[in-house]
Amino acid sequence: MIEVFADGGARGNPGPAAFGYVVKKDGQIVKSGNGYIGIATNNVAEYTAVIEALILLESSYPKVNLTFYLDSELVVSQLSGIYKVKNSNIRDLVFKIRTLESNFGQVNYKHIPREKNKQADRLVNLALDGQLGN
């Protein structure tokens, strides 16, 4: 099983935004990534982290089961189908995620406390600091 710890953040909401993710196989980090996405909301950054991880993984791990861990309860609830997505911009991102999910086996989303997502959060802040010159 592949585990993906994903995070997104914005300094201001909206504000300068970035994503980060850490991919683990059998508990070991096998890939990670981050990037600056411009001015966006926290939610857009969180969804972008999922999208970017799925894009990276589709060539390396097709048809495998994935579990995403995010510290955004809203994003987890929306991607798990518990909450409806009302915002049209977010709906577009969810549609892209659903399309990418078809390249894998089962894809699950689980909420974790912020403290358990520190590696992905650090990558978000590195991307923001690098872009903003901090």
UniProtKB/TrEMBL annotation:
Pfam families: RVT_3. GO terms for molecular function: nucleic acid binding; RNA-DNA hybrid ribonuclease activity. It comes from the Bacteria. Residues 1-129 form the RNase H type-1 domain. InterPro entries: RNaseH-like_sf, RNaseH_domain, RNaseH_sf. This is Ribonuclease H. It comes from Candidatus Curtissbacteria bacterium GW2011_GWA2_41_24.
